[in-house]
Amino acid sequence: MKTAQAGTLESSDIMITLSPQEPGDGVKIDIDSNVLHQYGEAIQAVIASTLAEAGVKDVWVKAVDRGALDYTIKARLLTALDRARRAA
Amino acid sequence: MSWQNCVERPVPPGNKVEAEKIRKFLARFGLSFDAAVDYTVGFYRNDELVAVGSRAGEVLRNIAVEPALQGEGLTAAVLSHLIQEAARRGIYHYFIYTKPDTAPLFCALGFKEIARAEPYAVLLESGLGSIADHCKMLAAKVADLPPGPRAALVVNCNPFTLGHRAVIERAARENASVVVLVVEEDRSLFPFADRLRLVKEGVADLANVRVLPGGQYVISAATFPAYFTRGEEITKAQTRLDAEVFGKHIAPALGATRRYVGSEPYCAVTASYNEAMKTVLPEYGVEVVVMPRVEVDSASVSASRVRELIRLDDWDAIARLVPETTCRYLRSPENSALIERIKASQSRH
């Protein structure tokens, strides 16, 4: 895996950047959102479960959210993961 | 009004007609267009420029949106375009240097404030990595230095002279330990790797001195962008901002309570930088110690004088201004091409 990115900063979208970490480092998720107060935990949960389903264990995810729906978050994350794996 | 029917396209470098359009557009926002950027995108409506943004290395700059279309998400579109293009070049961390009144616009798009120099400028960053990560790394690199008063220096050493040696030596004598940060930005005649090595070799006998790469948060393209505000304000904004970053973040990470500098009789920018430090750093509990330049042959020792003597081929005089280690480096056959380049160059840096 290599560092990769997907999404935009436009309204209702989310920009996801992820970077592979050393084995054993685990998953680290940093979220910046205009709705962090209400939906921060929900965004975190979508990202964590999508990573788990994809079998990714050691990764650093940076998300800049602009009010994306769950489907958008998942789609952007999967695209970033796909790019990260293709680049390797 | 919608910008959805805008066309976004990269501005080809070297296209003089487009560059002129962008220059005119940016002038309305008090911004200058430096053609030395790596990438520029323009947003056009009916072939008329309505938004623009550029990237130079990690610095996103010249971001401007037609006032009538502001508040429609065009800034987010420009930033997204620049960030996606940066990703294709393997760049995942970005700086924005902007005026205090426009900073909130970028903060709403995920950018975080590093420091500000009111009323001139604010430095923001986003992406992977942050000044907090950088400071953690710095703190780990100096954790084993002896406890007690600690001093810091930021040096370019282009190349390392007996003048640099004298300031570091004094700092080492007056403090329990000293951290020397070598400017990493490669804009000097001597390459960074060589400058760093010559500093390390030149102070190798001083056990309480640690020499480290300066990183991108001291005197870098991010803290010293050579554009933006006009005239004398440029220097003031840059030097104050750099001093703010140092006082607020770097000094506490290093555990440094003093910063040593050499007095600056010649260069106006460096003199202004020393003034900015004397104003800003005490607010963060960092004392600025200015040491007068040492003199050899009844003139101040400076790296620029060494470069001048290289041009004059006066190696006897050079040997009196630099330590043995620098002298050996300058005379090494391996570096003859570099020396020739310096002789041919009129650059002051």
UniProtKB/TrEMBL annotation, chain A:
Subcellular location as annotated: Cytoplasm
GO molecular function: lyase activity
Membrane-spanning parts: none
Annotated protein name in UniProt: Citrate lyase subunit gamma (Acyl carrier protein)
Keyword line: Cytoplasm, Lyase, Phosphoprotein
Keyword Lyase attributed: yes
Xref: Pfam families: ACP (PF06857)
Modified residues (O-(phosphoribosyl dephospho-coenzyme A)serine): 11
InterPro entries found in the cross-reference section: CitD, Mal_deCO2ase/Cit_lyase_ACP
GO cellular component: cytoplasm
From TrEMBL, chain B:
Enzyme Commission designation: 6.2.1.22
InterPro entries assigned to the protein according to its UniProt record, in alphabetical order: Acyl_CoA_acyltransferase (IPR016181), Citrate_lyase_ligase (IPR005216), Citrate_lyase_ligase_C (IPR013166), GNAT_dom (IPR000182), Rossmann-like_a/b/a_fold (IPR014729)
Keyword tags: ATP-binding, Ligase, Lyase, Nucleotide-binding
SUPFAM superfamilies referenced in this protein's UniProt entry, alphabetically: Acyl-CoA N-acyltransferases (Nat) (SSF55729), Nucleotidylyl transferase (SSF52374)
Domain called N-acetyltransferase: residue spans: 1-129
GO molecular function annotations of the record: [citrate (pro-3S)-lyase] ligase activity; acyltransferase activity, transferring groups other than amino-acyl groups; ATP binding; lyase activity
Pfam families, per the entry: Citrate_ly_lig (PF08218)
Enzyme class: ligase
Reaction it catalyzes: holo-[citrate lyase ACP] + acetate + ATP = acetyl-[citrate lyase ACP] + AMP + diphosphate
Function recorded in the entry: Acetylation of prosthetic group (2-(5''-phosphoribosyl)-3'-dephosphocoenzyme-A) of the gamma subunit of citrate lyase.
Name of the protein this chain belongs to: [Citrate [pro-3S]-lyase] ligase
